[in-house]
Design brief:
CATH class of the largest domain: Alpha Beta
Oligomer: single chain
CATH superfamily of the largest domain: EAL domain
Protein name: PAS domain S-box-containing protein/diguanylate cyclase (GGDEF) domain-containing protein
Number of helices: 27
Strand order of the largest sheet: 13-14-16-17-18-19-20-21
Helix content: 40-55%
Structural class: alpha/beta
Strand content: 15-25%
Radius of gyration: 42 Å
Largest sheet: 8 strands, mixed, barrel
CATH topology of the largest domain: TIM Barrel
Pfam family, one: EAL
Number of domains: 4
Shape: elongated
Number of strands: 21
CATH architecture of the largest domain: Alpha-Beta Barrel
Length: about 725
Amino acid sequence: MTDRVDQRVREDRSPLSPAVLAGAEAFARGWATAVIGSSYVPMTRAEVAQHLQDLTERLVEALFASPFRTAPGHEIGSRLVDAHFTGTDTLGRTVQLLGDDLLVELGFPGDARLTSRLSALQGALAAGYARALRERTLAEQEAIRAAVLDARDQAESMLRASEARFRAMFTEAAIGIGIAAIDGRILDVNQALQDMLGFSVEEMRQYNVRDLMHPEDAGSVWRLYDQLIAGECDHYRAEKRFHRADGEQVWTHLTLSLVRDDHGEPQYQVAMIEDVTDRHLLQNRLRYQALHDPLTGLPNRALFLERLGRVFNNRAKHVRAGLCYLDLDGFKVINDSLGHDTGDQLLVEVGRRLDHSVSGEGKLVARMGGDEFVILVEGSSGEQDIVDVADRVLTELEAPIRIAGHELSVSASIGIVERQLSGTTSADMMRDADITLYWAKADGKARWALYDPERNAREVARFTLSATMPRALERGEFYVEYQPLVRLEDSTVTGVEALVRWQHPEFGRLAPDRFIELAEETGLIVPLGRWVLRKACEEARRWLEEFGDAAPFVSVNLAVRQSRDPELVRDVKQILDECALPPHHLQLELTESAIMGTADEPLEALRALCDMGVRIAIDDFGTGYSNLAYLKHLPVHELKIAGSFMEGLRAENEEDPVDAQIVATLVQLAHALSLGVTAEGVETPAQAARLLRLGCDTGQGWFFARPGPPENIDSLLRGDL
């Protein structure tokens, strides 16, 4: 039999290094020492050692195989049973020895990847071992059951022989067997069952089957039992716990069969009981490892999601729950600068503090991975409950953490979601907590943020705009409106500002403040700005052809990213040439902060445009922190004073002296530098009059005209309005 087992185990071997083979051989010797004597095996000691060495090599090959498979673990567990390594301690010693010594002997202690693979192979080996042992046990059980049935059906002349065979099997069977009357009185038990439960035959005969009920037995076990003694079924199988005489409990696999008399009436019940305590404990250990974080010992993502799913599955009306989704601030810096070992110790301490600060019934702290943790609070009464939890966590993390001579300060950002469970799902709750976590980080870190449906709707709309913007330009959803720039002295239209709009199919007409920032972020501002520039120059050429010297120049806003585009000068020149528009009919507007913060290269581009004849204007002047001495060196023709300074000049009867003085100062500064001045946000006749008195050259605002289609400018130029 050993030849057959060895031959099957050696199939599909891949070469191993001499060092690994030596480690495998050393482990096999230790394995043989551990299991010899725990089972009766028809082999010599040398044959046992050789057999286990072959199994070890097969296991090591699977450990290093690519791709990794657990099937060899199942095979090895089965081969152990085939070779009769079936003692009660054999599996436990084998699994423990594999976990404790194999990687050490192979020279890879602490290797996370191999440790994970070894855990999987241990589980597979235990499963293969249990399956093979169970199949052998079931075969024995069926043989015993057949013997019991044969005893009933044999002729009277064969009764003594049949009884002898049954008694031999009953007495020598490796599994526990008990026979009881149909009313539940225990009539006989074999030696294996006596050893398993620690009771003698006489003591067992004092019990009824129902006396062996365990408080935590599943209700289905006893429902099936009632059906069996009523003759409604012939047998059933179940996992069941029993109390031993010493007070300990034994996990067993129970098969209960019914023996009928010659008339088919229930007469006896026969129980075959297999001790599976070691296997059950191993399964519990493997399940714990699968559902807990190996670093912090906290529940992991899988267990958390399982618990959250149960909360939603068992929810009743008006039941509430809350989540705190937590991420450490600056953890990557600590990890990268002080090393992963320090980072791991930090995570362990953070996990301990979280578990300490958030405890009690209905609360769960789990590590989701990396430096992310989550806290589940079941049965909350409102948002304040979860806010209190978040405040406790932030307070708990304030104290420095000392690790390896370093005193580390750590903070966290927390996203909070609390709601009634009806009408939502666990996936919705996790998504909203994750979104809110990033709000907390964006708002400054070391704080919590509460989920806000309105803010989320705005974020979703923002994302939708960002995603649809590239195609919107292709589909022609953008268009340009124009607002006149009027000379205050005689109300003549000298220029127009081109203002882009977006006619969105879902959100309707959108002003620039809804999408220009997104265009900057996505990089679409460059092609969009180029498109606006071309449309504006085409209109300016049309006005030039129709109105001649009275045609206005067109002013186009230039975003920061456009001003730094290396193709800016070439694009402007190409568009002017294609539209046959003289350069002085084009004005480019940059914000004060953008033009003051330009580096040498963008500034050179502006100088090149200026030399070409294009006008340059500073938009929203006065709202930034300009270096006024630097202003005189810039290639600028016009200052557009921000509309915020116009508010104090709007009233009919009086003006704000501070705003008036600021505007007067800015006008004097601009004129001293030979720059024109345009006042933005002019809305009343009083404003226009005051601005003329203060020396402003041009005005722009609703008092003159709102932004509109180019036809409105045509009407102004013809004097129709």
